[in-house]
Specification:
By secondary structure, the protein is an alpha+beta fold. 30% of the residues lie in helices and 27% in strands. The strands form 5 sheets. A 5-stranded antiparallel beta sheet has the order 4-3-5-6-7, covered by helices on one side. Strands 12-11-13-14 form a 4-stranded antiparallel beta sheet. The two termini are 32 Å apart.
Length: 277
């Protein structure tokens, strides 16, 4: 009986842990742009004034890019300052910020969705940077200036097609999609690449990913993927690609996560990608 009670406690504990998983839809929304978990706090970044609104967003970069692309250059973005928790609102029309409140809003471009932050003013941004060592080498940019940079980016291949993170430094995880319209789309990692493939569906002509071990470019349909490991990348859940199953298994043994193939991921992307931890 003692062993039975202990087993029951462990199972209940695991069930409770899973229910509170950061990828559990009961406690989270998911970014309309990149699929990352957005905790249901009541102060999420969201886009309204678009089809199937609201769109929840993980960071200001995803929100800006989503409105410009999927929103056709119009919509309303509501965010909350990372320190002040005060509302920040952007009214966007014809690809331009028509109204911004407060006008002092500033964004920390942190190099990944998890690190991109928005503040009501530069003072708050500098306070945040001072308290976080990782942020000291990152840039604080006025929100309106950043929006226009995303819109006018002369070289779209310099940033992730999905989450807008700078592609520099992501050579070992890059994911490339070639569309039937002969458009080349580069994502920072397999997480973003797979979400873009799922979004484009039959518009995809060919997809290429990067073997995490060798850096070799391989066909996405032949790759083996490890999702949800403890080795973090810019996006979450982290997703790595491998040419050899033995390499994927060795990586999994060291870092955790689950092994999947492309068809399985694309057909169950909402379940597989959003419920790992």
């Amino acid at each position: 009986m003692k062993h039975l009670a202990l087993t029951l406690c462990l199972l209940l504990g695991l069930a409770s842990s899973f229910a509170q998983s950061p990828y559990d839809s009961e406690h989270n929304h998911f970014c309309h742009r990149c699929g990352m978990a957005v905790p249901k706090t009541g102060k999420e970044i969201k886009v309204t004034g678009v089809k199937q609104a609201p769109w929840y967003q993980c960071c200001p970069m995803c929100a800006f890019k989503d409105v410009l692309e999927d929103g056709g250059g119009k919509g309303t973005i509501t965010a909350y300052g990372a320190i002040s928790k005060k509302e920040i609102k952007f009214t966007i029309k014809d690809g331009k910020i028509e109204k911004m409140q407060p006008t002092t809003a500033i964004v920390l471009v942190g190099g990944s969705c998890m690190k991109n932050k928005i503040f009501i003013n530069r003072k708050n941004g500098e306070q945040f940077v001072a308290k976080h060592d990782w942020a000291k080498n990152e840039m604080l940019k006025p929100a309106k200036q950043l929006f226009m940079k995303i819109k006018k980016n002369a070289n779209p291949q310099s940033t992730c097609a999905t989450c807008s993170v700078d592609l520099k430094g992501h050579e070992k995880t890059a994911f490339v999609i070639l569309t039937k319209e002969k458009k080349r789309m580069v994502s920072c990692c397999a997480h973003c690449g797979l979400f873009m493939m799922h979004k484009l569906k039959d518009k995809v002509k060919r997809a290429i990913t990067t073997d995490f071990v060798t850096g070799e470019l391989i066909a996405a349909k032949k790759a083996i993927y490890v999702v949800g490991s403890k080795l973090l990348t810019c996006c979450s859940p982290p997703t790595y690609s491998f040419k050899k199953k033995s390499d994927a298994e060795a990586f999994q043994k060291k870092n955790g996560g689950q092994i999947h193939q492309l068809d399985e991921l694309l057909s169950n992307i909402g379940k597989v990608m959003k419920h790992h931890h």
